Batch of 4 targets.
Target 1
Amino acid sequence: MSITSLTRDWGFQPSIVRMTATNTLAEITTTGYVLAQLANIEAVNFGPFDWNATDYVLVNYVDSGPQYGFFVYDDATQSLTAAAVVPGSLSDTLPSADLFVGSAGNVATARALSGDATITNTGVLTIANLAVTTAKLAANAVTSAKLAANTLQYAAVAMTAAEFNGMYAAPKLLIAAGGANTLIVIERAVLAMTFVSAAYAAGGVVGLQYDATVHGAGVAATNTEAAADFFAAASTSFAFNGVAGDTVAIAPFTTTVNKGIYASNLTQAFTTGDGTWVVHLWYKVIPTV
């Protein structure tokens, strides 16, 4: 195992010596390595090699394949040691819990993670409380599949007067299906009506259901509310709870799994009303396998 070539780039600062060796990193950094290689150095250089105190030595060595790195020559011990970082190069050391970030000058620079998140020197990332807001999320980037099954989700869905009047024959989609082997479980919902000028009339009991079955005949996802309650002539909110009890909680997979949540009503369509709606929903998406 030895040095097989040794040349100097003349006329440049810092002066760079290029060395190729069949030694490992551990061997080339052993105290007295250069002294032990004098015979090989003189052979490949056709005589003694003149070292300078400012030399950077770019060494190609072998460690599970070709490797290379910058070293400096120590004349006192006739050894090679790892070179100090030069401007524009990437350090092989990094302060605890810091990250390398490209600077304005395109140089990798150590910086502490700050702002909405911090990181420890064991790689644990912590997001600050209330840091993740709706405005900071990309469209549909955070999906139900990426959340734990016990995560309570929230959605607010606008519904027009025409959609409310028409949901008997055309149920209104509120939450899209979550995908194969998923079941949406409604914790609670609030239908908030902003009164305009005309009250609703006719209709039938209102509730949320799985899938778009017409006439409110889908499997119940919440309790129901009497039609007359929606005849209010003032802005009003209507609260619903998720289904509970044997009489309303029976939900065959064929009619509930991978099904969306819809608003509908029984008996007949509502009429005359022109109030606008926002449906607020709190729900979980759970696996069924």
Target 2
Amino acid sequence: MRRFVWLIIINLWVLFHPTGGMTAENQQWKVIFSRANQAYKEAHFQQAAEGYRQLIRAGYENGVLFYNLGNAFFRLNQIGQAILNYERARFLIPRDGDLNFNLRHAHLLIEDIIPESQGFESVKLFWLDSMKLEELFWGFAVLNVFFWTILLLRLYLRADWNFYLLLVLLVFWFIAGLSFGIKWYQVETDDRAVILEQEVNVLAGPDTKDTLLFKLHAGTIVNHKRTEEGWHLVSLPDEKRGWVKAEAIERIRR
């Protein structure tokens, strides 16, 4: 929640100080980004990936960076890293057509066929997957302003038009509030992780001597449950679970 609040504050600062970010540091950002793009065009995909990662490590996180990094890893045949960064990009640019196409294509290359569970919100509130948390927040905030404005107006002017308008706003206000609340919960509790290594042994316990339960392959998305001394307990939608080495996976939500 604290991270989300800071993101809102930063967005407001940028909105009201549009020229405040034009610094030498931003110019350096553009140079590194341009060089990485050029490296990608020249098929130097490892060099391009390093450039994008350098920017992300420096705190310049946006959907385009994660998308480009995913493309570079895809060209390097690192499907796990490609899907990881495509999924991170979806948090920031969920409606990008190229991103969603590439992500679907990358999923077709995964060896493990594990259908994702469809929850109530995915079926009934289908628009949530295509919207950012910040968009839902501002939509709910704007509807709040309109709703309370019309409600106050009715104290001085009682008319049919503002009564029906208030009812309509009340419906949208409820839907927007519910959508924002569910999306916030989804983001805050997102425990998904991606298998990065080509093949990973899933064991019955956090020890290499434990029983081998099954294997997973690069790009497979699992749910991260907990960490214990260099091991992660992961689970799948079909309720299978087991332990993998820490370096074998990485959480999608940073």
Target 3
Amino acid sequence: MVARITLKIDGEVFLAELLDKKAPKTVAAISNLLPYERKVIHARFSGEAIWVPLPEDFPVNTGHENPTSYPSRGELLYYPGFTSEKEILIPYGSAIFASKVGLLPGNHFATIREGLDRLEKLGQRVLWEGAKQIIIDLENNRSGKTES
């Protein structure tokens, strides 16, 4: 069975497959954080993408695993926060992962497999309407624990 996470954003639910063989440390670190609740905002430096900041004390010792600066639509990236903030990037269209200081290598740790057809419209809503609530959780987690 493939491990998956859910991303609930503004009434939409997306299911993403975790890439535990390609990014095992990143998947473990993200999984230990879940469930995670915050606001997702638009990532204009990166093109057609939204992002969610991670806690200041979130682990940064994952190293580069399956890194890319050129994610495809629905490929979730984790950035450990050396040059920019710690974050998860969620591309909904053409994206180049970057900050005001240039390209960033993000760890591709999950890929949206269900709901991808609705992701672009959601990204456009975040762009034009502003921040939206996001809850990221393991697909079958029933703990009810949330963080802000």
Target 4
Amino acid sequence: MPVDISDGPRADLIFSFHAPCLPALFDDDSTHGMHDRMKKVDFIVTSQQQTWLIEVKDPESRRIPAARTAAERDNFLRKHRSGTLYTRELAPKLKDTLIYLTLAHQAPANEIRYIVFIGLTRMDARSLATARNRLRRLCYHPGPFQRDWASKFDVIVLNMPAWNRIMAPHSVRRP
């Protein structure tokens, strides 16, 4: 039986995860009491083999007022093209989340995947790969003495069609 998770009662996206994955909302102050100045990923999904730190960017959300939809999408694309989406939003969310988990003695010991979901259905595979490569360069640091870290790490950037294809049987949908 899948476990559905969203970012609240008025959510525009519903993620369904199948066992043995355990999803949890993380970008919620009642979950962890994390200070507002720290940036947080939206969800953390754990299994025996992997921990997924999931950030959702949804410029096509139906919660955005119709009069603002085009402006929100254009703003998102501008940040994507300029790189500020990665340097000021996505990379800091990963780093602050990992700092929090480490200091709270909850750091993942298994493989870590930073998964960014971008709610643009028209984002093609080339744009997703470009986004992944930009984010990988910002988020990956060589381990001690330039060797790999004990935990494996990867960055994945997906939109809805790519998520439902690559992450199956886990899925995302709009209600």
